[in-house]
Each structure stands twice: as structure tokens, then as C-alpha cells.
Specification:
Oligomer: single chain
Largest sheet: none
Shape: elongated
Strand content: under 5%
Radius of gyration: 18 Å
Number of helices: 11
Length: 202
Amino acid sequence: MTINHQEIDEITVWDDFRKGDKNAYEFIYRKFAPLLYNYGFKITANRELTQDCIQELFIALLVSRTKISQTDSIKFYLYKCLRRLLMRAMKTDSRYVNRPEGFEDQFNVVFSYEYELIEEQLSTERLAHLHKALDNLPPRQKEVIFLRFYENLSFEEISAVMGIEQASVYKVIYKAIHNLQGKLLLEYAVVLVELHSLCRLM
């Protein structure tokens, strides 16, 4: 199979992988392993553990490829699997088992200036305030914001990835916006809401 790196049909690529196509498997690894590392490291802050779990994930995929389910979003499927592996690994890792608040007391994302639309509408000073407020959100709120607006996962997908009810995803988003409104001037929060169409999406 020849894979177009510009435009791919994820359903077709996933099906080809499940049928044993090595090119499809290699393509999935090359495309999504860096994304998985980026996400996993934000959860663990541990490079070795994150890398080990990613390798475990891809070995498990290869071994059980004929039994895994279909998906129209490879990234969603892999994120869900990786998060489950990380949570399991962290339960037995001495660096995490004694954390008083559990595993979700950290999510090491630093929100960056990557939205051109934001840059067009906000001054540098306002951008700094906005991203400082995002960085100071509680870990679960940061993770939901990251998955929804940086990784473009649906609310249903976020629910599955994080293992929480979809209603809880909505609540976390609303709490994040409430926290932002408390830390920013109202105009900044309004810009964020408008940019991501939060009211319409919910």
C-alpha cells in the first residue's frame, strides 16, 4: 500500500494495519508516536516511563491487530490506550504510589502562542496574561483544554480517553472558563470563548 502523507483516510490506514500491512503500521508509528510522547510526558513528567508505555502500546497493537476494533480517529484510540497504560504503570511506580492527591495532581502542559487567530486579536501583553491563566488552571482542567482545543478531540472522545463521564467533561470545561474569568479581565475570557465557540459547541 502506498500512503499519501499529505492526506490520509484514517479508516483505510487502520484497516490496512489490522490486515497486516507493515507500511500502514510504520506510518501509524511515525505519525503518532511523537504525539503520544508529547501527551504521555505531560501526564508523567517521566521520559523513560512514557517511552516504555508507548513501546508497550505498539507491541500490543501488533500482537493483537486482528482483534482490535475499528476507529475513525487513530489519535483518539491511541491516546485512550496510552493513558490507560500510563495510569496502570504509575500505580506500581514508587515515584507515584505515595502521591497524596493521586495521579491527576499534575498535567505538565505549558500553553503556547500557537493560534494565529489569537495572535491577530490580542496584543503581546494580553497573550501573556491569557497563557499565564491557562497554565495556572488545575491539572484536570488543563488536560481537558489541551485535548479539546489543542488536540481537537470531541467531548465523547475526551470522556473515553480520561475515563470520565461526558457530563463531567462539560463541567470541567465550564469550571475552566469560570476560573479564567476570575483570573483575567472579562474581555480576555470573552475572546477565548468566541475563538473556540465554546457556547455553541456545548
